[in-house]
Design brief:
Elements: H1 5-19, H2 25-45, H3 63-67, H4 75-90, H5 105-108, H6 112-124, H7 142-158, H8 169-178, E1 191-194, H9 201-210, E2 215-220, H10 223-235, E3 242-245, E4 255-256, E5 259-260, E6 263-268, H11 306-315, E7 317-328, H12 337-348, E8 351-356, E9 369-375, E10 384-389, E11 395-397, E12 400-402, H13 405-417, E13 425-429, H14 430-434, H15 459-464, E14 467-468, H16 469-473, H17 476-481, H18 483-489, E15 490-492, E16 498-501, H19 508-514, H20 516-541, H21 549-564, H22 572-597, E17 604-609, E18 615-621, H23 627-634, H24 636-662, H25 678-688, H26 695-732, H27 738-779, H28 784-804
Parallel strand pairs: 1-2, 1-6, 2-3, 6-7, 8-10
Antiparallel strand pairs: 4-5, 7-9, 8-9, 10-13, 11-12, 14-16, 15-16, 17-18
Helix pairs in contact: 1-6, 1-7, 2-7, 2-10, 8-9, 8-13, 13-22, 19-27, 20-21, 20-27, 21-22, 22-27, 23-26, 24-26, 25-26
């Protein structure tokens, strides 16, 4: 049976992390990723006789040859000399600096410690599920996803100063989509470039959006990270990518003659505010000392290199080139030399959009950043800059923030439509940016107020009662959809601008949920979902062995989003996120199991092995079709009987607990017991015998014994019913047809979960409206004059009571 995709990645990480010892994650990743690399190229190209592989594997230098070194006293030295060195000599793209030293005692331990660590590390990659010989890189690249998973975890573990080699995949996807590359506008001659490519993740996201082989080139200053990028591109089936090591600003390697090479697409995540950017450059104040004419708009400050990288990118774009670059927010508003460059950038028309991102997304820093989207095509005709403030769209993920699928989609949709969305996005005209008030300052809060509206207290309403119409009008979308509901809830308070509830506060919820127009709204949303469900079911059931889950979820999610955008009062992106969360949590694993084994639902024993090698049977399970779905569909009566018996057992146990608590006082029947159990209670009953003075105690003890016997009988009955139901469910799997399995998985498991999530969103509409109306009604329920009268009446009562008590004060 195939292993679940999520289990594969998590077990791979856990196994590797267990072997790390005291080594820093930023160093240990080099060993693990090399092992992934050598395993992949062995599986992918090791037995290819019918074509020329892009990576040559010399005889004796494959992963299989590494296995033969396990347990040998010189294993580290042999990996260096017999595996790594021949690989380097046979492949011009690879360099010794790309790979770690497998014979370093400072990192791997000395003597037997090194032997054990390397032997175990090789053993991890011998797992049968890590067989990449059938890797479907062009569709569902399980290897590429594994690499991404490991890189993210290593970046998380490497700390602030050492995690910059990795750009979060979610941000990379936004950038790749923002530059507009797609299968429709890509060919083999399409070029993409990253001047600070890190581990190559950004370039590979661009390649993924292209959907076909394109020309990839990247430069990286750190020699080890450049090696990671080279391995990464090979692992993602882009062995033709050219990754070189070197300082991009001082010594760019990609040139045509003496000029910088230009590209169709450029992406970059440069080091934030690089304080050493000018090392190796002699520019002068005007920037004329640069042989590549990058600084004609001005020379960036010596201690702020952000614009230096941006100007390099602009110079590296073709006449109709597109680019996206991650920079800190300071580039939008800092003054002096940067203000001069920023003014030229705006006037050029090249800056198409600014996307403000949440803080704490990146591994090298916690500061917020933005994406500058550049487009030389039609630059002179551009009338303004699209500004998107996406800073509030994220989810906490450990000690970092992360863009959700809905955040990515909303950013990209807004960018593609060039749409104005209140408190989120605006197309800002150049005249506004260049006005004396703004003076080319691009700080997003100047143009987009993304703050939450303040909940204002109405003094008039506090004084005279009534609910301000202004607050009721805030639910304009609800009233537009359900105009009769507003009339059912509110009436005039007798003066303009104020209303009052027609009914008691406690009746608000039932009135909303029971109103015909709320019912009609619910029905409209449910109908849209039902139509989507009917349309998508054939595609879900049509997933076959060797199918492509990523293509499936792409279709399913996009059609769901499109369907829900027609739903009133429901945030379509939130519904979309429910699907994507469920995909990551469960549905993805199911889809990959189906792609590996077909629609096969067979229960398997769960055998756990402890550290001593002792095995324990933990029952059975079926990942694709868990037991509860079988029980719910075929054994509902048996489950109901078990539930009823379980309820009886809980009631009996509750009676025992209540009896023990009541009679465990100092003079109670259980006062002298160390532990209350049947043996001690029976001993005490025997000890009392016929003592008439202990009659009451005896009655309590006998009552306990009777309840205890009843509890034991019920426990036995529950156990027997549970075991019988468990066997019935287990045996029923063999009777299931493929059609049955598809129906259970697609309808009872997948779509039922999504329907429940959608119902939660519908319920939230009513809950939000109810909570706000109750809050407003309670806030203004008692006007100030009535409060004054109440205080006076209460004060008079208190004064009268005090006089009766003989208390007098002046």
């Amino acid at each position: 049976m195939a292993i679940k995709k999520s289990d594969l990645y998590s077990s791979l990480w856990a196994s590797c992390d267990e072997l790390r010892g005291g080594m820093d994650a930023s160093q240990y990743k080099d060993y693990v990723l090399f092992m992934l690399f050598i395993k992949y190229i062995t599986d992918k190209y090791g037995s290819s006789d019918d074509f020329e592989p892009p990576v040559s594997i010399p005889k004796g230098a494959s992963f299989k040859d590494m296995i033969a070194l396990k347990g040998k006293s010189d294993i580290g030295e042999k990996i260096n000399t017999q595996i790594i060195q021949p690989l380097i000599e046979s492949n011009q793209k690879l360099a010794r600096s790309d790979f770690p030293d497998f014979n370093d005692p400072n990192k791997l331990g000395e003597g037997q410690a090194m032997v054990d660590r390397l032997t175990n590390l090789i053993g991890i990659f011998q797992k049968p599920e890590l067989d990449f010989s059938q890797n479907r890189a062009e569709h569902d690249d399980i290897l590429g996803d594994a690499y991404e998973y490991l890189m993210r975890h290593f970046a998380t573990e490497s700390g602030k100063s050492k995690g910059q080699f990795y750009t979060p995949a979610e941000v990379s996807r936004v950038m790749a989509k923002a530059i507009g590359i797609s299968p429709a506008n890509s060919t083999a001659s399409t070029t993409a470039y990253d001047p600070t490519c890190g581990s190559g993740s950004l370039l590979l996201k661009v390649a993924a959006e292209a959907g076909k082989p394109i020309t990839l080139e990247g430069q990286e200053k750190d020699v080890t990270t450049a090696g990671l990028a080279r391995m990464n591109t090979i692992l993602h089936d882009f062995p033709t990518a050219s990754i070189v090591n070197g300082n991009t600003l001082a010594a760019p390697k990609f040139k045509d003659g003496e000029q910088l090479r230009t590209y169709d697409y450029v992406v970059a995540n440069p080091p934030f505010s690089d304080k050493t950017w000018s090392t190796g450059l002699t520019l002068g104040d005007s920037g004329k000392g640069d042989p590549y004419q990058r600084f004609s708009w001005g020379v960036p400050p010596a201690k702020q290199g952000d614009y230096a990288y941006l100007l390099h990118i602009i110079r590296s774009m073709k006449a109709a080139g597109k680019a996206a670059c991650i920079l800190p927010h300071g580039v939008l508003f800092r003054g002096h030399a940067e203000a001069v460059i920023r003014q030229q950038l705006v006037r050029s028309g090249i800056l198409k959009a600014i996307i403000g991102l949440p803080a704490n997304l990146f591994y090298g820093t916690g500061i917020p950043a933005c994406i500058l989207v550049l487009d030389k095509e039609n630059a002179t005709a551009r009338k303004g800059i699209l500004m998107i403030d996406a800073s509030k769209g994220f989810i906490k993920d450990g000690n970092k923030n992360r863009l959700r699928e809905q955040d990515i989609h909303k950013i990209v949709d807004t960018f593609n439509r060039q749409a104005d969305i209140p408190r989120y996005a605006r197309m800002v005209p150049y005249d506004e940016i260049a006005s004396p008030k703004n003076d080319y300052n691009l700080n997003l809060p100047r143009y987009i107020d993304s703050s939450d509206p303040e909940d204002l207290q109405d003094i008039n309403a506090h004084l005279n009662g009534g609910i301000p119409e202004r607050d009721i009008d805030a639910f304009a979308a609800d009233w537009q959809q359900m105009p009769g509901l507003r009339a059912a809830l509110f009436e005039s308070a007798g003066r303009p601008g104020y209303a009052r509830l027609k009914l008691p506060i406690n009746d608000v919820r039932s009135t909303i949920l029971g109103h015909p127009q709320f019912t009609a709204f619910t029905g409209k949303v449910s109908t849209l979902f039902s139509k989507w469900r009917e349309a998508i079911t054939p595609q879900l059931t049509g997933l076959s062995q060797n199918g492509h889950p990523k293509e499936l979820i792409g279709t399913v999610s996009e059609t769901l989003l499109a369907s829900m955008q027609a739903a009133p009062l429901i945030d379509a992106y939130t519904v979309y996120q429910h699907l994507m969360d469920y995909w990551a949590e469960t549905m993805q694993d199911d889809a990959y199991l189906i792609a590996a084994d077909g629609w096969a639902a067979k229960p398997a024993r769960i055998i756990e092995t402890d550290k001593k090698g002792k095995k324990k049977d933990k029952g059975w399970a079926c990942d694709l079709l868990p037991k509860p779905y079988i029980v719910a569909r075929y054994f509902a009566e048996e489950q109901a009987a078990l539930d009823a018996k379980q309820a009886e057992l809980e009631a009996a146990s509750g009676q025992i607990t209540e009896l023990e608590e009541k009679h465990s006082t100092e003079d109670g029947a259980f006062a002298g017991f160390d532990k209350i159990n049947a043996a001690q209670v029976k001993d005490r009953v025997k000890e009392i015998g016929t003592d008439p003075e202990a009659k009451d105690e005896l009655a309590v003890l006998k009552r306990w014994l009777k309840l205890s016997e009843r509890e034991s009988q019920l426990k036995k009955a529950v156990k027997e019913l549970d075991a019988k139901l468990d066997q019935q469910a287990h045996d029923h799997y063999a009777k299931l047809s493929v059609t049955d399995i598809k129906s259970l998985v697609v309808n009872d498991k997948w779509l039922a979960r999504l329907a429940a999530d959608l119902q939660g969103e519908i319920d939230r509409v009513g809950q939000t409206l109810t909570a706000r109306i109750r809050e407003l009604a309670e806030r203004y329920a008692t006007p100030l004059p009535r409060l004054v009268d109440d205080v006076a009446a209460l004060s008079a009562k208190v004064e009268e009571h005090l006089k009766c008590m003989g208390a007098v004060w002046k």
